[in-house]
Amino acid sequence: IKLPKMKPITANIHREIVGKVKSITLSLSKTGKFYASILVDDGTEAPALVHTVNTVTGIDLGLTHFAIESNGKKTANPKFVIRAEKNLRRKQRQLSRKKKGSANRAKARLIVAKCHEKTANARADFQHKLSRTLVDENQAVIVETLKS
Fold first, then answer.
1. What SS3 class is residue 132?
2. Do 124 and 63 lie in a common domain?
3. Mean pLDDT of all residues in 83-111
4. Which residues form the Probable transposase IS891/IS1136/IS1341 domain (predicted)?
5. For residue 85, what is the enclosing H or E element?
6. Considering the chain, what percentage of its residues have pLDDT values greater than 90?
7. Are 95 and 105 in contact (CB under 8 A)?
């Protein structure tokens, strides 16, 4: 990727860029990784909205199960979260034992940040896959809101 006032950046491009690039937003994660979000105008019109509702489902988010649909289908809590939290606890304990300002503490901080990033990415992936299946199977999805 070539940006103004910067030297060219090597990038892992996941999709071919088709159309005119409108803007590029760069972001830096806590682990030192750069991410580029590219807005492209491909010239196609947005598809017309479909207003017919054939199937409707309601979702209740719970503690024992991640989600329970109105038809009785239960989605279990993801197992990776428990493992990731245990791993994170261990890494944070190791970080707390390091002397402040040392190079080993900086390395340990980076390890904890990577652990947080990996857990967040796994959670986001799980939620995206679940929401995608719900949207594909139903025309309308109703979610509860809790007032606190």
1. helix
2. yes
3. 95
4. 50-147
5. helix 79-96
6. 38
7. yes
The model's confidence at residue 8, banded by pLDDT at 50, 70 and 90, is: confident
Domain that holds residue 98: 58-143
My answer on whether 80 and 128 are in the same domain is yes
Q: Do 33 and 82 reside in the same domain of the chain?
A: no
The 10s digit of each residue's pLDDT in 25-70 is 989 888 888 888 999 998 888 888 776 768 888 998 888 889 988 8
Question: How many domains does the chain contain in total?
Answer: 2
Q: Is 52 part of a structural domain of the chain?
A: no
Amino acid in the structure at residue 86: K
Euclidean distance between CA atoms 24 and 19, whole angstroms: 14
CA-nearest of 57, 78, 71, 90 to 128 is 78
With CA atoms as reference, report the closest residue to 36 among 70, 10, 73.
Answer: 10
Q: Which amino acid is at 147?
A: K
Would you mind telling me the total number of residues written for the chain in this entry? 148
User: Token digits for 6?
Assistant: 């910067």
